[in-house]
Each structure stands twice: as structure tokens, then as C-alpha cells.
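Inputs:
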Amino acid sequence: AQSVAQPEDQVNVAEGNPLTVKCTYSVSGNPYLFWYVQYPNRGLQFLLKYITGDNLVKGSYGFEAEFNKSQTSFHLKKPSALVSDSALYFCAVRGRNTDKLIFGTGTRLQVFP
Amino acid sequence: SAVISQKPSRDICQRGTSLTIQCQVDSQVTMMFWYRQQPGQSLTLIATANQGSEATYESGFVIDKFPISRPNLTFSTLTVSNMSPEDSSIYLCSVDILRLADQGEQFFGPGTRLTVL
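Outputs:
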């Protein structure tokens, strides 16, 4: 069965510092991996995806994620956090033979000025 | 990408009543999805709606409780029937616009925040 784990309920970081939001997955075969962000009272916004190729994927708002097959991880990163990055972040996985997205439990990112 | 709208954006309903949520997309899409996000929790897929066929429901969700319509390639509705306070959630629709490429991310509507008293 497919699953996604986001081990941290909340991540706190000071503005200007690098941030990492962790995600590990379990899926048979090669997965499609996604990161979404949800601002208060808003829907989900797509940030980036890994399909194939380069393990480092760049996305919106300066975010990037690194696919690590051996560790089955897809951590979200940003070199320098902004207060406006404070939001709820969801990792999601989809197997190659299904349309179904499986979401992690979400990680709340709080960036302090 | 796609522009997705949902109506209503929020509603407060009495238990035992039903609410129909509409989802409109600005382009034709093959697959539309309905999710539920309970307070403080992640997203759970309710069902997948393809135009011209019956919706496919996930485990724990049934058609009598969550009937879905998909009359065309740009529109779908989800009805939450015989509501109870446990149905208080955000309901989101999403679309997969790159189905043919088989690698499309899903784009989400803004959600409908439902409170059942």
C-alpha cells in the first residue's frame, strides 16, 4: 500500500535561515512525488514535482526538493526562508499505475522574523 | 494549470439536511477528484469522477452519502447528504489536466468550508 510520512507536525525557522520539511514515502515501483502548500483559508497550491531525471527539483517561490531513492525521501528545502513562507505543507505520492494521490499529514512551517 | 472555482465557499448547515457543492473548471478535463480535509488533518480522497461514468468511491465513502454528478468535462457536483456534525470539513475538488501525459499534478479548487450544527 502507498503511504507518505511527514514526521514533523511543525517546523520553526528564523527568517533568512535555510529550511527543510521532511517527507518519506512507501510505494511500489517508481513514484511521482509532489509538494503542495496551503495558506490559511485557501486551497492547495502546487509547488513542485518529481517525475524522473534530475534528483533535485526546483519549484515555485524558490523552493526545491531532493529525491533520494535509497532513503525513499523527498525533502522540501529553501535556502533562505521568508516570513511569508509560513503555511501548511503537504507531501503527496502517486504510483505510476494509478491516478490516486496519497497525502502526508502535513507540516506547519512557521518562519519567525 | 487550470482555474477552478467552487460554490459555495462556506456554509453552515443543520444536521439532517443536504448540501450540494459545485466545482467548475476553465478547461476540459478528464478526471476530477473530490477530497475531504477534516479540521487539522490531511486530505482524504472521497471519489474520482469521470465524465460519462459512475464515480469511483474510496473505502469508507458511499454513493448514498456523497452522490456525485459529472455532466460534462468542466463541471462536477458533490452532495453531502443527511449531514451530521462529523461532516464538518473542508471539501476540495481537484483536476488532473495532463492525464494523457500520465504525469500530471492535480490542481485544487479553493475549497468549501462546511460546518454542520
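Remarks. Chain A has one domain: 3-112. Chain A has no helices and twelve strands.
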